[in-house]
Design brief:
The complex is a heterodimer of chains A (about 90) and B (about 210). With about 90 residues, chain A is mostly beta strands. Helix content of chain A is about 10%, strand content about 40%. Chain A has one domain: SH3 type barrels (Roll), CATH 2.30.30. Classes of the chains: A mainly beta (about 90), B mainly alpha (about 210). β4 of chain A pairs parallel with β3 of chain B, so a sheet runs across the interface.
């Protein structure tokens, strides 16, 4: 599954037992793709000695969704397998 | 939160600049000891790597790019669409990361953080300040940036939106501040002197 700018996506909820760069505070939350950054090695794979590349996306979340308050946005760079369509 | 706790929190975010006192410094020293003990790297190799990394790393670099963008609209466009190409144009080549520059406007103020560690464009901003690596800055900036900015002395009007960028990937972020009023006709070299490291992170207006 690949995404385009403007797509609504949701960060996966799982709590993997290995290294990941999916911050806990966005897990399960929906946001909007604002940029495609490139195809980069997935940190979850490099720590296992692999070099799986995936598209990385800048995804913008509303603070109110993440924290139940705040009028700001938080944009987080997330690899494709961290996301599902919202 | 009591008034006392609040004042204490101020120091927690941006009080000291002495890295040796920070918990992270103790962790780094311990990690270095383990690497050396395991034969992964020698003390000399680590020192040489850091010397190369920091040789030309300075916020003066980011300030020069900022001043050029303030005085050259084509360069500003390049800086915002292809940060690496814009950096290379001023002689900063082979950054080793994707540079993404986000522009402040009268409507939006940007601020950079790395909640997972302390990612940051070292070659263009110089060594990161102690507060940038602190748990307080990393955890609070995504949650309550307006309060964090106020502690840095940046009080934004309520109608100015805040956009926080969490550097979780191979991209490194830099803020392009708004050119200060009253600087019309000022040469780029003079303008660059106005730009601070905090301005390039977003914890100051310039």
């Amino acid at each position: 599954m690949s995404y385009a700018v403007g797509d609504r996506v949701r960060a996966r909820t799982g709590d993997p037992d290995h290294h990941t760069r999916l911050p806990r505070y966005v897990r399960g939350q929906a946001g909007e793709v604002v940029a495609l950054l490139g195809d980069w090695v997935l940190p979850d794979s490099s720590v296992a000695g692999l070099a799986t590349t995936q598209t990385c996306y800048a995804v913008r979340f509303a603070a109110a969704d993440l924290f139940g308050g705040g009028d700001h946005t938080v944009t987080v760079d997330l690899w494709e397998s961290y996301l599902e369509r919202a | 939160m009591s008034e006392h706790d609040h004042v204490h929190g101020v120091h927690g975010v941006h009080g000291g600049e002495d890295h040796h006192d920070l918990p992270v410094a103790a962790r780094v020293r311990r990690l270095e000891e383990r690497l050396i003990a395991a034969g992964v790297a020698s003390d000399e190799e680590i020192d040489a790597f850091l010397a190369r990394l920091y040789e030309s790393a300075s916020p003066v670099n980011g300030a020069r790019m900022t001043a050029r963008a303030w005085t050259d609209s084509a360069y500003r466009e390049l800086l915002l669409s292809d940060g690496n190409a814009a950096a290379a144009e001023l002689g900063f080549e082979g950054l080793g990361y994707q540079l993404r520059v986000v522009a402040n406007t009268p409507q939006t103020h940007n601020v950079i953080v790395c909640t997972l560690c302390s990612c940051y464009p070292v070659s263009l901003l110089g060594p990161s300040p102690g507060w940038y690596k602190s748990f307080a800055y990393r955890s609070r900036t995504v949650r309550e940036p307006r309060a964090v900015l106020a502690e840095f002395g940046v009080t934004l009007p309520a109608d100015v939106g805040i956009s926080v960028w969490d550097s979780t990937s191979e991209a490194r972020y830099m803020v392009l501040p708004v050119r200060p009023v009253g600087t019309d006709g000022m040469a780029a070299a003079k303008l660059a002197e106005l730009v601070t490291l905090k301005g390039l992170i977003g914890t100051a207006l310039v």
